[in-house]
Amino acid sequence: MIAGYNQGNFELNEFYREVRTYLVINKNTKIILITSAEMNEGKTTIARNIATCFSKLEDTKVLLIDCDFAKKGVSRYFGIENTNGISDLVFGRKTIREYIKK
Q1: Secondary structure letter of residue 98 according to DSSP
Q2: Closest to 42 (Cα-Cα) out of 82, 86, 4, 80
Q3: How far apart are CA 91 and CA 17, in angstroms?
Q4: What pLDDT is recorded for position 3?
Q5: Number of CB atoms found within 10 A of residue 65's CB
Q6: Which of 15, 34, 50, 86 has the maximal Cβ count within 10 Å?
Q7: Are 51 and 59 in contact (CB under 8 A)?
Q8: Which positions fall inside the CobQ/CobB/MinD/ParA nucleotide binding domain (predicted)?
Q9: Which ranges of the chain does DSSP label H, i.e. alpha helix?
Q10: Rounded distance between C-alpha atoms, residue 2 and residue 8, angstroms
Q11: CA–CA–CA angle 6, 2, 16 (5° rounding)
């Protein structure tokens, strides 16, 4: 769910839909990276909201990867138990299928 969606924050919701539309128009976009140099700048919020917008499109699959080792905000927000570390995937101790949640 988009932050503020049920609170009537039309402008915020429209912003995320516009970002999604821009990225859909540019059909070469396959990967989106949300990053910043500082903590608490809204990376997780932006990433989950854009992912949520894309998930509303028909025939669209979305893979949202949270690489914030300390906060794990994506799994917490979606209520997913986070038992696998990204390093297990990087070093081949686990497969990508062991990480994907629907």
Answers
A1: G
A2: 4
A3: 36
A4: 54
A5: 14
A6: 50
A7: no
A8: 32-72
A9: 10-25, 43-55, 73-78, 86-90
A10: 11
A11: 120
- Residue count (the chain): 102
Tokens of 56: 């509303």
**Sequence-separated (6 or more) residues with CB below 8 Å from residue 67:** 86
Residue-wise pLDDT for 21-59, tens only, equals 888 887 777 888 999 988 889 898 889 888 888 888 888
Rg of the Cα atoms in the chain: 15
Cα–Cα distance, 77 to 48 (Å, whole number)? 9
Question: Hey, what are 82's tokens?
Answer: 């986070």
Question: Is pLDDT at 7 greater than 70 in this prediction?
Answer: no
The pTM of the full predicted model, rounded to 2 decimals, is 0.74
H-run or E-run covering 96: none
Residue with tokens 């927000």: 77
Nearest CA to 60 out of 20, 15, 33 is that of: 20
Both tokens of 55, joined, read 């998930």
